[in-house]
Amino acid sequence: MMRVLIVDDEAPARAKLRRWLSEEKDVEIAGEAEDGSTAQRAIGRLAPHVVFLDVQIPEMNGIALAESLSAPQSPLIVFVTAHDQYALPAFDANAADYLLKPYDRQRFARSLERVRQRLADRAQMPDRLQVPVGDQLRLIDKAAVTWIEAEDNYVRVHVGAREFLLRSTLQAMLAQLGEHRFRRIHKSRAVNIAEIEALKPLLRGDIEITLKDGTRLRASRRYRQGLFAS
Predict the structure, then answer these.
(1) Mind listing the pLDDT tens digit for each residue in 149-177?
(2) Which residue segments constitute the domains of the chain, with CATH numbers given?
């Protein structure tokens, strides 16, 4: 079953999603939330596969909420909003889809199919990653990736002393590599937790991370809690 969390501060919008989702045989509605903070706690507690998320919600907007999700196997996000100006940042946050209100039943069905396909791809994720080397593609073990960092519209993948530049977002690369292996340590960086050798507290709550190959990275205070999540 696909567990779904509905997040919207407008009751009619939640009711519409609840009604249509309840008619799908493979969907279980795990819960609802009216604001970003409640939604963030619900995601941690209920572990939904998918979140239908409004952008303009109280306390924490939907974009910020999506960017904060660094736990293993974070849910797919379908943004649901009446404002089209958020489409670019939504897809930068690796949104599975962007439903523009008012949407009809046909558009909703297409969105749900996209979500099903993304979940199926995640479940069948291979253990190797394709990286460009000259005019060829090389396969590397995903577990061998030590850390990754975002650079504009690209992600630099570090495998020991080697580096590979791939066109992707950080969140999309995390989903491809397997989010159970990685923790975000910064808005633009994530580290393979199996490669961490030592941790050193710094001023203002930051942490210095030393990897097994000697690489030193800085984890910002914002991502400290996620770093220690089980």
Answers:
(1) 999 889 999 998 899 998 888 888 887 88
(2) 2-123 (3.40.50.2300), 128-227 (2.40.50.1020)
**Model pTM score:** 0.57
Mean pLDDT of all residues in 125-133: 78
Q: Are 161 and 213 in contact (CB under 8 A)?
A: yes
Token representation of residue 60:
């924490």
Backbone torsions φ then ψ of 167, nearest 5 degrees: -80, 110
| CA 85/CA 100 separation, integer angstroms | 10
State how far the Cα of 226 lies from the Cα of 216, in Å rounded to an integer.
18
DSSP-derived secondary structure for 30-88: EEEESSHHHHHHHHHHH--SEEEE-SS-SSS-HHHHHHH--STTPPEEEEEES-GGGHH
Phi, psi (degrees; rounded to nearest 5) at 15: -65, -40
